[in-house]
């Protein structure tokens, strides 16, 4: 049985995905005692998990240090990497949307958009034929319209709670996001049997 | 922007001596196999016209290095070897000698937009077999690529084979127009199963055939391809018969376990018109090379002949070839003014015996111990004794 290395995003997505693998019949360690570990082994299945920042999963997979990985579609849209997208896992469902202060039109002279997803945002506004200035931020995006840095933000919305708490409203939905199973093109060919088997097992779970 | 003293242009690399040496060995063993198979090596210019090679090469426009010559013509640094070789083959010189077998080992240039370290200049080694549209030519280049990898001792290499034309015909059978087929191709090239399945739901495909359509993405043997072959379509049948024959030849040559026949496999290089393949090996996360039939490219040079070939990325091969820990025999002779004659004679004698000898004037060495450590044997000939 080929050894399989899986890159996983730390945190909530990891727990959901881990559960999905267990349900799919994989014999994984029950207790993940130390949450600060970066590498988790599942010797019974000859699987090794690499825990990384969600944004970094496609990079690990593209370079082949992880055979497969679980990555949000948002990350894949933002970082265009050469990986195979094998399956929509249907977990961590959310969407990318534009938001801002209620009833405020975009500034006509210099419309500014703050976001963690500069590529997605720029692609979206270019597609609409609107010229905007993109400001890349790394977190607390909601702050930007509140203090007048930007007219709009482009960000992930899952429940809309954060927006509401900060007095922001959603304007347009850009794209639906779920977590995807991705594979390195070389691993996909060299370990095809194992990877296809995993995809089929997960597909059954994901469609339930 | 100030440029730091040791900086190089984006994507350019220095080859340090040990890499240069490994490369020379790789080149020697690779090209020897290519020549043994009856191919003649050639070299093409580094600069080509943008209007011809630049546009024909199927390399994205923004990946081309462009410059102007003194007449104001736009030139490109050659982005691939296949199109220059097609140009040569189509010229008068070689036209009468078809089929012609040409091999190369050359550097090509592709500008990089992403992460800093990716090479924008790298070597490729490969062959082009021009003027033969039979399946035997396709089999020949695949087997040759396999033999080159074997010679380089690359473990568990794997070939994925598809067929551009056959796939096109099958997609047409599903009632898709060219625009829809292009969308399907895009998902196949990036093996985007999720995108493909959602696309399948939007395309006007008969509901009874939807499952069969989705199955296109997951084949691994030629036999599996049969289910999409329309028995009344002569062209499809003859292409499929060729694939079966090809498989037989490859099996006979010992490649049976090393090949996946994936009907949806496709190249982003648009000039491929028939069989296409890609090569993978354990140890690299990126493909080692690719190849296929490009009759359409020859047509652009005004020649109606078949052509097929492959190219391997030398930088990726280097990464994974097993490093042979070699104890090289390298002798250092340290001399000074008094022992000059004797040292020169000794060096000459040893070199004639095939030993690699570095002759060094001792007082010029700053740290004798550290310098001596670089050699397998040290002869200190200082003094007049």
UniProtKB/TrEMBL annotation, chain A:
Pfam families: HisG. Residues 53-203 form the ATP phosphoribosyltransferase catalytic domain. It is found in: Cytoplasm. Its EC number is 2.4.2.17. GO terms for molecular function: ATP phosphoribosyltransferase activity. Lacks the C-terminal regulatory region which is replaced by HisZ. This is ATP phosphoribosyltransferase. It comes from Planomicrobium stackebrandtii. The lineage of its organism: Bacteria, Bacillati, Bacillota, Bacilli, Bacillales.
From TrEMBL, chain B:
Belongs to the class-II aminoacyl-tRNA synthetase family. HisZ subfamily. It comes from Planomicrobium stackebrandtii. This function is generally fulfilled by the C-terminal part of HisG, which is missing in some bacteria such as this one. It is found in: Cytoplasm. One of its GO terms (molecular function) is glycosyltransferase activity. Pathway: Amino-acid biosynthesis; L-histidine biosynthesis; L-histidine from 5-phospho-alpha-D-ribose 1-diphosphate: step 1/9. Signal peptide: none annotated. It comes from the Bacteria. HAMAP family: HisZ. Keywords: Amino-acid biosynthesis, Cytoplasm, Glycosyltransferase, Histidine biosynthesis, Transferase. Residues 33-363 form the Aminoacyl-transfer RNA synthetases class-II family profile domain. PROSITE patterns: AA_TRNA_LIGASE_II. Its main location: cytoplasm. The keyword Glycosyltransferase applies. The keyword Cytoplasm applies. This is ATP phosphoribosyltransferase regulatory subunit. Heteromultimer composed of HisG and HisZ subunits. Required for the first step of histidine biosynthesis. May allow the feedback regulation of ATP phosphoribosyltransferase activity by histidine. Gene3D superfamilies: 3.40.50.12590, Bira Bifunctional Protein, Domain 2 (3.30.930.10).
